[in-house]
Design a protein that fits this description.
This protein has 290 residues and is of the alpha+beta class. The chain has 2 domains: 73 residues; 162 residues, Nuclear Transport Factor 2, Chain: A. The strands form 2 sheets. A 5-stranded mixed beta sheet has the order 6-5-4-3-7. It has a two-stranded antiparallel sheet with strand order 1-2. A hairpin with a 5-residue loop joins strand 4 and strand 5. The longest helix is centred in the first third of the chain and has 46 residues.
């Protein structure tokens, strides 16, 4: 829409310049003939001005034509790239290891339930993208790892600085499965792959106009959600906040004084540390226990 307005505006300005030049030419083209006395006066200063305005119009048309060709080529490149990414996202092989991972996890956590975990992942995804649309991560702060929270918050601040809001509506998670489990260095990482359908569009905060995407267009993507937690059992209280990594202060029992998150005694729950669309760089870690 902005491109069309730019092109139309350029043509209107060029046409206005041309018309102004023609008017100036007519106003400055004089020819006074003396009567019987033979007095004659002529003045013609419009030739060079009219020609210059015509050149300006032609130049403006050429510039607009070049811009239109540039935008057309750019749109084709972007469309091709997006289709390629969509194909990679939906066709990349992501193994379903739900049964194997549940068996491996139950060796350390007998109460682990894969169905409950996948339900938790679905809820977290919906709540996260609803919070992003509202530009307020407070509702999902307790389930976000510190680095992910800061990264998403930075993105929201950048959007606010540019006066735009990205909306995610009609969010529906259709499938989910456990695909990888890694246990090392005092932490365990569980990766959930899920399919999500939603509509995405961007609005201008000042005009409320949609500048990208459409509320009516639904897209489907696969996401890899990495959840992590400490492998420690039975601790009276964690020494560091599982959300932001800050040292816990005994003066603030059950709550981190830095990020404000609730920190329960004993084994901390799963925290979302990564949430990314599937692409060619997506790695398969399988099941690794060290």
């Amino acid at each position: 829409m902005k491109r069309l307005l730019t092109a139309v505006t350029a043509l209107i300005l060029a046409a206005a310049l041309f018309c102004a030049g023609v008017s100036a030419f007519d106003a400055n083209d004089y020819d006074y003939g003396g009567g019987g006395g033979g007095y004659s006066y002529s003045y013609d200063s419009g030739d060079s001005g009219g020609g210059g305005d015509l050149d300006s119009l032609i130049l403006a048309i050429v510039i607009v034509a070049i811009l239109c060709v540039y935008w057309w080529i750019k749109d084709k490149i972007v469309t091709h790239r997006n289709k390629k990414l969509e194909k990679e996202n939906l066709t990349k092989d992501i193994p379903d290891r739900t049964a194997e991972i549940q068996e491996a996890l139950r060796q350390y956590d007998p109460g682990f339930d894969s169905a409950a975990m996948m339900s938790f992942a679905k809820d977290t995804f919906r709540e996260l993208y609803t919070a992003l649309s509202a530009r307020d991560l407070t509702p999902v702060r307790p389930v976000l790892f510190g680095q992910l929270f800061e990264s998403l918050n930075s993105r929201l601040r950048d959007d606010a600085a540019h006066f735009i809001t990205v909306h995610y509506v009609n969010i529906n998670v259709t499938q989910s499965r456990l695909t990888s489990y890694v246990r090392e260095n005092g932490y365990e990482y569980l990766i959930v792959c899920l399919n999500a359908k939603y509509s995405e569009y961007t609005t201008d905060d000042k005009t409320r106009a949609t500048i990208k995407g459409s509320r009516k267009t639904e897209c489907e993507k696969r996401y890899m959600m990495t959840f992590m937690r400490s492998t420690a059992f039975g601790a009276a209280a964690p020494q560091t906040c599982p959300h932001c990594g800050a040292p816990m202060n005994a003066a603030y029992p059950g709550r981190c004084e830095y990020c404000g998150s609730t920190v329960e005694a004993g084994r901390p729950g799963w925290l979302l540390s990564v949430c990314e669309p599937v692409d060619r760089r997506t790695q398969d870690f399988g099941i690794m226990i060290s």
